[in-house]
Each structure stands twice: as structure tokens, then as C-alpha cells.
Design goal:
The complex is a heterodimer. Chain A is an alpha+beta fold. Chain A is 23% helix and 39% strand. Chain A has five helices and 20 strands. The radius of gyration of chain A is 23 Å and the shape is globular. In chain B, helix 5 packs across helix 8. Chain B is mainly alpha-helical. Chain B folds into two domains: 63 residues; 69 residues, Arc Repressor Mutant, subunit A. The N and C termini of chain B lie far apart (56 Å). The chains are: A alpha+beta, B mainly alpha.
């Protein structure tokens, strides 16, 4: 096919994507419904800004300006990534690989917009196979092995055992017919040795009641990132990421180890330059700004090196 | 140029949503991207409306929001609720997708790295020059050309793979 013809094909495909745009009315309504912030919030914000400015001036008087935080890193640890998918719905790309802090579950995650697919492989106690008894109500066949399916029209999962100590789980969310998709994806799981997942990161200070759950490597527009995840009391979570992708720096100015960063209350994200990259601390749940800063100042983390995410 | 933010939002949201959908390849994410951008633009409307080209400025905000969109990775770890097990229904037969070259390019665009995808959309949807793309993405013109060139090569490879598969059937 000639270049001009192929470019025309691309043009048509991009327009086809654009043609799937939602009706603008709902977005207009939602945006125009949001009013100006209430005075009490404005006053609180002003107080924060004054405090920050005073702090910054005192800091400047005491030393000089630094532009990037230097974070130490623990030694890197590696985990085998031995399984993959022979089939994915159209449009999905691998977004991240992670491992639980106990090292027992390795996850691979693929995304397409907001749609997500996950494959989790866990080393388990052999007695857990009792959970997948033939004859269960929502049993599915996964290449000759009994699996259990659970879920609804938004998300679904299939769980099955490869052997007495290897448990598989496939999850799908925010895509069409997730209950059907998880079964097809589960049946496509194949041995697929990859480079080991190597991560050098660990939390320092965490808010009271929080606990680390996973660490891993993600794909960004500028290359691989390192991340750590913790759960917060309630249903919240905390995500720390060292990323090469320059983030949105909107927000209030905040000092992290003497380096100016930004905090966006709207996005729940604290961002500061670190180790030649960007450190982002993102939380959903009850967590104060000083707690976010404490997390950023004490985390130990090194840039990721992963060919699959480049 | 509309005077008020409300006029702007009513006049431009549809166009922004189409552009964002082309960028994200996902109508739901496009809605989130545009909504976030408009809310920020609303807060700064007094300044933005005084710019020489407010429309281009907000368009660029959409591009930047797409490039920096935080994928809520941890949210994916939220487990499926362990509610009552639903009745077993047999899995449906796998639908064999009707594929053609156009479909390969359509789905291939969604797999491109974000900057390459943005470059492709700016080039073939917004009909921008390489200089304009470079300006929008904050890179050199050579890098903008490289993004487009690599994206086209990847899409061609997708289409070629499909050709090969079709020939072997």
C-alpha cells in the first residue's frame, strides 16, 4: 500500500475513534454545576499558602535552593514472571507488573482506556484447592481444570489452580461482557517466561493504620516507573511512583526535604522532582498533607529498568 | 470568541470530547479528561480568556491531561466483591472478530505509546504541521516527525501481520 493510501487509512481510523465521543451535554452540565469554592475553603487555602510562603522564606534564609530530592534506595529484589496471555481483547497494552510485599503473588496488568485486565499468579498453601470443588455453582472449565467465576456486568474474575500450590486469578473490569472475557482470557494463560520483575523500593513512614501491599514497575509515556502501593484505613490506598514522565504540576507549593514540590488537592497528588525523575505520592482516602509529605520524605526508591515498559 | 466560560464550555465541549476520544481511544476516559480540563480552565478563565488563542490553549490542556493521565493502578487491585455467587451460565462461544486492515489500524492506534498516539492524532485528526505538533508536545520538530514516523511504522507492522495471517488461512 502506498504511503498516501496508508495515511488515509490512519486518518479514517483516527476519525472513527473521534466519532465514538460521548454526547457533550452531560459533561457541560457537570462542569457548569461546579460552583466557586466556598469562602471557608478559600480562607483555609489562603492560610496554607501563607504558611508555606513563611516556611519557604525561612528555609531560604537557612540555606540555598535545591531543585531535586535525593532519595536513597534499598537493594533491588527480583521475582520470576513466568506466565502470560495468548489472547487479549483488542487495544490492550501491558501497563504494569507488580508483586505483593510477601512475594507470593505476581501480577501482570493490561489496560485499554479505563478497561483493565489482570493476571495474578500466587504461591499458596495446598489446602486452598478445597475452594474449587467440582460442582460449584459458578464453575467454569479452564483447559480441563475447574475454575470459579464471580462478578457482574462491570467486573468479573475467574480463579483456578494449576497445581496444588499455584493459584491463578484473571480479573476484568470496565469492558464489555467481563464475565465472558475473563473465561476466554483464563483459557489463554500460557507459560511465558519474561525478564524477572526487579524492584528497588520500600516505604519509610506510613500513616497510622496503613500497610504496604505491593510494589512494581509501570509503563509511562516516557519509560518505566517504579511504584509502591499501600492500603489506608477504610477503603483508601496510597500510591508512590518514581516516574520519568513529567506530571501536571498544578497545585499548591509544598516543600519536600527542602525541595519545592506541588500538591493538587483536586487530584490528591503530591509531586516533587527526585533522582532526575518525578516522585508522585497519590492517595485516595483519609490522609493529611503532612502525612503525604512524610511518605515522600522517607520512601526509599530507585528508577526502574524494564525493557517491556520502554 | 465567547465572552464567558459558560459560553465557551457550551460551544467547545463537543469538539474537545471528539479530540480527547481520538487521543484516549476511550469515550469514558475522554469524558474524564475533558471534564478535568474544563474545571481547571473555569478556575483560570479570567486569564485564559485574555489569551490570543484561548481555544488552542484549552486544546493543549487536553493534550497535556491525556499525556499525564494518572492511571489508577491501585484501583485495579480492588478485589471483585465476594457477593453471592451467581448462577452458572455456560461461556459464550468466542466471537471471531471480523478483521480487516482498517480494523488493525483502528485497534493499533490504541496500542501506541501516548506521545506517538498524540502525534498521530494531531497530524491526522487535527491536521497540524510538524512544527505545530512539536509546539503542542513540547519537543523539537525532529522529535515530532520521529513520533509520527514510528507510529506509522508500528501501525504498518500491525497491518502487515494481519495480511500474513489472512494469507495463511
Amino acid at each position: 500500500m502506498r504511503t498516501e493510501e496508508f495515511e488515509e487509512l490512519v486518518r479514517d481510523a483516527v476519525i472513527e475513534h473521534a466519532d465514538r465521543a460521548p454526547d457533550p451535554e452531560a459533561t457541560v452540565r457537570r462542569v457548569l454545576r461546579v460552583r466557586r469554592r466556598r469562602p471557608v475553603l478559600v480562607a483555609a487555602s489562603a492560610l496554607v499558602v501563607v504558611t508555606l510562603v513563611v516556611g519557604a522564606l525561612a528555609w531560604r534564609a537557612a540555606g540555598g535552593a535545591r531543585t531535586s530530592v535525593d532519595l536513597a534506595a534499598p537493594p533491588g529484589r527480583g521475582w520470576a514472571v513466568s506466565w502470560g496471555l495468548a489472547w487479549l481483547p483488542s487495544g490492550f497494552v501491558e501497563d504494569n507488573r507488580s508483586v505483593t510485599v510477601d512475594g507470593r503473588t505476581v501480577s501482570r496488568n493490561w489496560v485499554s482506556g479505563e478497561a483493565r485486565l489482570s493476571l495474578r499468579v500466587s504461591v499458596v498453601d495446598g489446602t486452598e484447592t478445597d475452594h474449587v470443588e467440582p460442582g460449584s455453582d459458578d464453575q467454569v472449565d479452564v483447559n480441563g481444570r475447574p475454575g470459579l467465576r464471580d462478578g457482574d456486568d462491570t467486573r468479573a474474575k475467574v480463579v483456578w489452580f494449576h497445581d496444588a500450590t499455584t493459584r491463578f486469578e484473571v480479573l476484568a473490569s470496565h469492558l464489555e461482557r467481563p464475565r465472558d472475557v475473563v473465561v476466554r482470557v483464563a483459557r489463554s494463560v500460557v507459560p511465558q517466561p519474561q525478564d524477572p520483575l526487579v524492584v528497588a523500593a520500600e516505604f519509610g513512614t506510613l500513616p497510622a493504620g496503613a500497610g504496604p501491599v505491593a510494589l512494581g514497575v509501570g509503563r509511562t509515556s516516557a519509560g518505566p516507573s517504579t511504584f509502591l502501593t499501600a492500603v489506608l484505613p477504610g477503603d483508601g490506598f496510597l500510591d508512590v511512583e518514581l516516574t520519568p514522565a513529567k506530571p501536571d504540576l498544578d497545585g499548591e507549593r509544598v516543600l519536600v526535604l527542602g525541595v519545592p514540590g506541588t500538591y493538587s488537592k483536586e487530584k490528591g497528588t503530591l509531586t516533587v522532582p527526585a533522582n532526575g525523575r518525578w516522585l508522585e505520592v497519590y492517595a485516595e482516602g483519609e490522609i493529611s498533607l503532612p502525612d503525604l509529605v512524610a511518605v515522600a520524605e522517607t520512601v526509599r526508591i530507585a528508577p526502574a529498568d524494564a525493557r517491556w515498559a520502554e | 470568541m465567547p465572552d464567558s466560560f459558560e459560553d465557551f464550555a457550551r460551544a467547545r465541549t463537543g469538539v474537545l470530547l471528539r479530540y480527547a476520544t481520538a487521543l484516549t481511544c476511550d469515550p469514558h476516559q475522554a469524558q474524564d479528561v475533558v471534564q478535568n480540563v474544563l474545571l481547571r480552565a473555569q478556575q483560570r478563565w479570567a486569564s485564559i480568556s485574555r489569551l490570543e488563542a484561548p481555544v488552542a490553549y484549552v486544546n493543549r490542556m487536553v493534550t497535556n491531561e491525556f499525556l499525564s493521565w494518572r492511571r489508577r493502578r491501585a484501583a485495579s487491585d480492588v478485589m471483585v466483591p465476594h457477593g453471592g455467587m451467581e448462577g452458572l451460565s455456560p461461556p459464550l462461544a468466542d466471537p471471531t472478530p471480523a478483521v480487516d486492515e482498517r480494523q488493525a489500524v483502528f485497534s493499533g492506534i490504541a496500542r501506541l505509546p501516548r506521545k506517538q498516539r498524540a502525534a498521530i492524532v494531531l497530524r491526522y485528526y487535527a491536521n497540524q504541521t510538524f512544527a505545530e505538533i512539536a509546539d503542542e508536545l513540547g519537543c523539537s520538530e525532529a522529535t515530532a516527525r520521529s513520533h509520527v514516523s514510528r507510529a506509522l511504522a508500528a501501525l504498518r507492522a500491525d497491518a502487515a501481520r494481519l495480511d500474513h495471517v489472512m494469507e495463511t488461512l
